[in-house]
Write a structure and sequence with these properties.
Spore Coat Polysaccharide Biosynthesis Protein SpsA, Chain A, single chain
Length: about 180
Amino acid sequence: MKGLILIGGKSQRMGSDKYLMDIHGLPQYLHLYELLSSFQIDVYVSCSQSQQAEIDDETPKIVDTYNAIGPMGGVISAMGNDPKSSWLVVACDLMNLTKESVQNLMGQQDKAYDVIAYQKPDNSFFETTITIYNPSAHSVILKQVHAGDYSLQSALQKLTVKEVVPEDFEALKNFNHPKDLS
């Protein structure tokens, strides 16, 4: 398994780049890099062409192959980079993500499924920004990208998904607005 930190978004609602925000004493992408690396997996930062220069040289990067298609661009770029690996994908706006939440999801890894995803009991949508994508998901996601459908939720409807109930809902909260930080 490899780790992927998605930073490619424009952060328009937040008003500043979320991946560069210092919430835990480091830029958010480095905090998540250290968190995922603590599980002894190779970790990469998924970024746009223009963001490459903002990421320090020591941090491995995968530049999005497809521009401006959202998180799916990062996922499909990573899977294209190494289609034989499972990818633990984490978005940079998960400011409260804990080691326990990552460990819980990784502990549910099962290659009999295309995807391992958190799903809150009262929600019909999967958490697509902390998810494991197994190699078997690659062809379906690639086909969807080529069809012009860039919704990860839509892709998950076509794949076999192992649903995991999160133990800590706050750890999965996406921070999209400045008010979310208070």
